[in-house]
């Protein structure tokens, strides 16, 4: 949401809080005959509660569940604001000799600005806590493979992943998400469970898109880190060797085919390269300009980061990578782009024109969501 609209909302809430503060003070003192100092404290608390609720759910549209912690933060900000009011009034009225009404107006602007910035950037900011030794997960890594009609390719990919991690001291689970396949993708996966331990298959109907499939896998993941990769193993699982050391201090690590050190073994047709470059230009122009390759299907996350990012997603199909990275930028996650080896699959189901138009529509949709604050 645009900053000035948020500030207007915050100021409106401040006015209602002031009205409640003054009105309740009158009721407590004149009607209920409560001592002034006690009544002032009670009315102040009522105003703080009112302002907290309105600002949380209307001004900042914050869905964080730790309400107690947020309220304590809000109360602290309000107390500091009250102290700031007293200091400014004493300075303006007694030291500078400014008329008390004018002093109050200037003070109100200063305190309102303080409260707004403190609550926006501290109270109602949902930060992603880095993983610590206190966190416990069932696996070191969850590997998510979205699959749609992949019965011919999923078996070899699962075998490659199994062989790689069988030689590593990394505990892992593999989640294949059957995105409404009409073939026997789920049957092939389930048949391999006897040989490949901790392999699961999630299946639903109808087909909903790659983004939806990855999100479904993330929601069921039990690994400290989460990696999603394509069913055709176009980025070989061995590339995770580069990612693993980075994930302890980087919340998002993504593969890239467009860096100088990248190794594209089997290239895409020229028209797909052209469309990819055009899409990348539009992404840089509309959203962010520090990532070369948003669409490589090899991305890894710290668990908490993945849960937070995917919980905010609105796009289910090809544009979900772009949306995911846009949200990561919005939340100030640390994002690292790593060159990877990549093999184009001749069986790719991408429909260049139709999917390009759909992705462009997703770009506009994501931009509008960013402007309206839907991801915040």
- The whole-angstrom Rg is 27 Å
Please give the share of residues in helix: 40-55%
Give the overall silhouette: elongated
- What is the CATH architecture assignment of the largest domain? Alpha-Beta Complex
Q: Indicate the multimeric state.
A: single chain
List unreliable stretches of 5+ residues. Answer: 127-134
Number of strands: 9
Q: In which order are the strands of the major sheet placed?
A: 3-2-1-4-7-5-8
In whole angstroms, how far apart are the ends? 8 Å
Return the average pLDDT rounded to an integer. Answer: 84
Instruction: Tell me the CATH topology of the largest domain.
Output: Spore Coat Polysaccharide Biosynthesis Protein SpsA, Chain A
CATH class placement of the largest domain = Alpha Beta
Largest sheet data: 7 strands, mixed
Helix count, DSSP H or I runs of 4 or more residues: 12
